Amino acid sequence: MNDMPSTAESLTETPEWRALLAHRADIEPVRLRELFAADPGRADTMTAVAGDLVVDYSKHLVTARTMELLLDLARAVGIEQARDAMFAGEHINVTEDRAVLHTALRLPRSARLVVDGQDVVADVHEVLDAMGEFTDRVRDGRWRGATGEKITTVVNIGIGGSDLGPVMVTRALRHYHDGPQVRFVSNVDPADLTGVLAGLDPASTLFVVASKTFSTLETLCNATAARRWVVAALGEQAVASHFVAVSTHAERVAAFGIDPVNMFGFWEWVGGRYSVDSAIGLSVMCAIGRERFAELLAGFRMVDEHFVSAPLERNVPVLLGLLGVWYTSVLGAQSRVVLPYANDLVRFPAYLQQLTMESNGKSVRVDGSAVSCATGEIFWGEPGTNGQHAFFQLLHQGTHLVPADFIGFGRSTDDLPVVDGSGSMHEVLMANMFAQAKVLAFGKSAAEIRAEGVAEELVAHKVMPGGRPSTTILAPVLSPSSLGQLIALYEHEVFVEGVVWGIDSFDQWGVELGKEQASVLGPVLGGVGDPGSGDGSTDNLIRTYRRMAKE
Ligand code: F6P
Fold first, then answer.
1. Among 156, 168, 216, residue to substitute to test ligand 1 (most atoms within 8 Å of Cβ)
2. Residue 195 neighbours by CB under 8 Å, 6+ apart
3. Which atom of ligand 1 lies nearest, measured to the CA of 158?
4. Considering only CA atoms, which residue is closest to atom 16 of ligand 1?
5. Where are the catalytic residues (predicted)?
6. 64-76 and 15-27 are packed helices; what angle lies between their axes, rounded to 10 degrees?
């Protein structure tokens, strides 16, 4: 596989890895309070900037020596060569023999990148222009439904990367939404489509069927049902003006009944979970318009440029990716909690779940050999302050090590005064964010609690252990640009982790068998004979299901 580092040598046998493991013993007794006391410049040294994102990683269980050892490891696995290979369009997705070029989706029109004999930048801008023309027409009312109605609702039908990115970005950019309302259907549970269509008028509804492969069962079921809904109300000829597609597969789009002139294409080198900035973002562009979408892309590009050019010691995706490896593979953390202190980022943790877990949830390396350390982080989270009243108890006093990512903004898009009519609710929000990160890191000792006169039998219950690590990411305001920067930051962080672990972060073979089994079991559910699924548990469950289905 071209220039990617060889995995012949197990990561854990390298001298750099051994040095990190040996260093763990130096870190384990260290307290964050002591680290800050010993080095007044720690917060400055351990704050790095990528584009508009200011990233404080000083509250991590690391010393300057830890970071040196992690950077040695990054160099030893050839992080810069791997990054350059990705940006150059080499086939780093080895198991599918594909380039990985989501970074080309945000290159400026003036750039040129020839991959496999094709200038991909020209292709990208041709599609962006087509998207822009189409969304202009939908937004200004020149695109009409079959009966001449203006489109007031766009329904995106897709799943996984063809849903999570558009949902997350549309929700995050609520403040910038000046186009038709946009809704999303993903689940094959008919409740999803039925709920979304409730109250909609087919005459003013446009469906965007988004599927890279155009073969995903859920999407085809939902799109077929939506088509029936339109045809029942408006007739067969209405399909042309009420359905467009986003896909890499023109033939399947045509077979479904959507004219490929109403298809917006992308390419095999865009992974589903890396596709929100491709034509998969069509519904986002309907909501916010082409200029705002261009700002989103420019945001991605700012962090791409930082990732490509910043020295490793100041390279934020590299530093955060290495910290991910440190916690997962050395300190034994199993999950990372993402805490956006911005309600509009409510779907960001779910978006990151696919981005990170479908990418790095692997137990073999690119050459097929088993990994020799823990890989992949379980991502979860909720916006603050809601999470504080739900799971923060475990973060503060539980037994698990859960590194946290706090994400906050200097300004709110919609600030309101607090209850007494003064001050700012946004300030209350941000005060909570800073307080939580502070308490997680520094805690409160038994001595401090006793000094407050707390009854002795309660002291142990009130001790806040501290030493709980977090990153804080601050940006000026939640905007298309800063959102693009945030997404690109995590994309590259995932990449860095994958390179260190030596895995292919761009395939997802683990999701295939479940799909196959579902298609085998589908016809069995409605049958009458022995389910014959091959295992007693599934057979029993199917019998019970059949009985319940008839009750
Ligand atoms: O099943 C996983 C997956 O292949 C994801 O990787 C992808 O984002 C999703 O399904 C949807 O795929 P498609 O866009 O081809 O419908």
1. 216
2. none
3. 16
4. 211
5. 358 (proton donor), 389, 515
6. 160
Strand 118-119 and strand 114-115: pairing?
A: antiparallel
State the pairing for strand pair 53-56/47-50: antiparallel
- The rounded distance, in Å, linking the Cα atoms of 12 and 363 is 14
Given the CA of residue 213, which atom of ligand 1 is nearest to it?
15
pLDDT tens digits along 475-510: 999 999 999 999 999 999 999 999 999 999 999 999
Chain centroid, CA 286 distance in Å: 21
Residue in 289, 294, 343, 284 with CA at minimum distance from that of residue 162: 284
Angle (CA) 509 526 513, round 5°: 10
Specify the DSSP element, H or E, that contains 289: helix 282-309
Dig out the tokens for 465 from the structure: 């252990």
Residue in this structure with the two tokens 């309101």, named with its chain if needed: 416
List the one residue out of 352, 134, 155, 391 whose CA is nearest residue 263.
134
**What residues are annotated to the active site?**
358, 389, 515
Residue 68 one-letter amino acid: E
CA 495 to CA 488: how far, in whole Å? 10
Query: CB–CB of 308/377 below 8 Å?
Result: no
| Pairwise CA distance, residues 279 & 276, whole Å | 7
pLDDT band at 4 (very low <50, low <70, confident <90, very high): very low
Q: How is residue 167 written in tokens?
A: 């949902």
User: CA 211, 215, 221, 223: dihedral to nearest 10 degrees?
Assistant: 40
Nearest to 454 by CA among 444, 466, 462: 462
- SS3 letters across 455-508: CHHHHHHHCECCCCCEEEEEECCCCHHHHHHHHHHHHHHHHHHHHHHCCCCCCC
Tokens of 519: 């298609």
Do the Cβ atoms of 137 and 180 come closer than 8 Å?
Answer: no
Ligand 1 atom at minimal distance to the Cα of residue 280 = 14
- Enter the pTM of the model: 0.97
Measured CA to CA in angstroms, residue 470 lies from 306, 432, 465 at distances of: 22, 14, 14
pLDDT in tens, 516-551: 999 999 999 998 899 999 999 999 999 999 999 998
**Hey, what long-range contacts does 27-31 have (CB within 8 A, 24 or more apart)?**
27/61, 27/62, 27/63, 27/66, 27/331, 30/61, 30/63, 31/466, 31/467
Of 209, 354, 508, best ligand 1 pocket probe by most atoms within 8 Å of the beta carbon: 508
What is the per-residue burial (b if ≥16 Cβ within 10 Å, else e) of 182-207?
bbbbbebeeebbeebbeeeebbbbbb
Tokens encoding 132: 């822009």
Query: What's the distance, CA 507 to chain centroid?
Result: 15
Mean pLDDT of 44-62: 98
- List C-alpha distances in Å: 286 to 145, 193, 233: 15, 20, 24
Q: Which residue has the tokens 């329904």?
A: 155
Residue 308, CB half-sphere, CA atoms under 13 Å: how many? Answer: 12
Q: Which of 160, 204, 206, 148 is nearest to 186 (CA)?
A: 160
